[in-house]
Structure formats: structure tokens, C-alpha cells
Fold:
Amino acid sequence: MQPLVLYDILSNLPGNNFSPNPAKPRFVLSYKEIPFVTIWVEYSDISIAMKAIGSKPSKRRDGSEVYTIPVLSDPNTGTLISDSLEIVSYLEKTYPEKPIFPNNSESLIRAFDSAYMSLLLPGIRTVFLRTTEILSPVSAKFFIGARTGDASLPWDVSRDADWELLEKGYNTAYEWYQKTDGKWIMGNTFSYADIIVACWLLAFKRVLKADEWVMISSWNGGKWAQVLADVEKECKLA
Structure:
């Protein structure tokens, strides 16, 4: 089996990885024990690099096209696919061992993905601000332009209010976890839903200041640091 190729975003951090969306297929590849290599791309070069390999653009809300990362190339099948959720769906169908959509749960987990994001976006400005600090100056400008549709500028005001909104979102997510009998969203069954949660937590841990991550780690009795640790261990990334 030839290793798959995952395109991820370059940063100034040790090890580069920080972005939650490329992290999702990375976690799934590791969980399923599928060999892969990573090609790192500057945020400002995503459009040029993805056009060069023949990746298809995604649609923005206004109908315009945008090239995104992650992109996955599978030389074993000749497949080139973008969008983290579609990549993961492809991996599940093509490499079904160790399922991450157990019990025919893909449609429900797709809905969970949207619901979880609706909890995070209201308080995401400081996270976006910190992200610009770990990118090259040129890439930071591209990032700001790409993300103002999700969180309007400026990103460096009302931080206390943003933290309150983010904590409120995690209080709701905590209630979801409390309704299960095990440590995962699906009780004792690990799934892609838990990877979604963990990859955003990993992004927070990577881009935020140490005291900011400590604050998030303390919410809900330390639940979120534990979820990240549990998922990393399950995916053999600890």
C-alpha cells in the first residue's frame, strides 16, 4: 500500500500543525492506521498549490469559489478530495476497518459537526487573532481575509465577552456529553464526533497563550483537556 498524501497548513509552531480541519483527517488516518505523509503549504499559497495538483474549489456562502486545505491524495485509488468531512467520509468507505461512523451514524455526525461549530463561532475572535500570530505575515493577511466572514473585525476587542461566549458554548457541549453513559459522545463507542471536538481543542492548545489554554482546560471540571487527551490516545497521537 502506498502512503496517502495529506496537504496541511504551514505555521511558525514546532511541528507546524495547528489547524483543526486538517487535523481531523490526520486523526482518522492515525486511528485507522493508514500510512500517510504530509505536505505543508503556506496559507497564502493554498490557491496556487491546490490548483497545481488539480484539486477542486469549494463554494463560499455567496457562491464564489475558494481553494481550501485539507486535501487528500490517495495514490492507491487515484482519488484527490478536499473538505475534511468529505475526506473522512471517503476514508470510511475506502478503508472501513476501525469505523469512525459506527452504527450507520454518518448523517447524524454530519449534523453534530454543524451544531458543534455553531457553539464555537460566536466566541472565536481571539482564537483567530492568535492564529494570525503563528503564521507568516503574508499568510496572516490571507487568513484575515478568509475568516472575516466567520467573525467580523476587529478581533482584538471584547475578549472577555468572547471568552464568555466560548465558555457558554462549551457548557452546552458538556451537557451533550453528560447525556451519555460513557466518555464518548456515543457512550462507550468512539466516533468521528469525538475527533471533531478534539481537533478544535488541539487548535486552541496550539495557537492560544498558555494561560488562555489553562482557562479553557479548567472549564467544566477539566472536561476538555481530558477529552483531548483521550482522543489523542485513542488515535495513537498521544
About this structure: The radius of gyration is 17 Å. The chain has a mean pLDDT of 95. The beta strands are 4-9, 36-41, 58-59, 65-66, 71-74, 79-82. The CA atoms of residues 72 and 124 lie 27 Å apart.
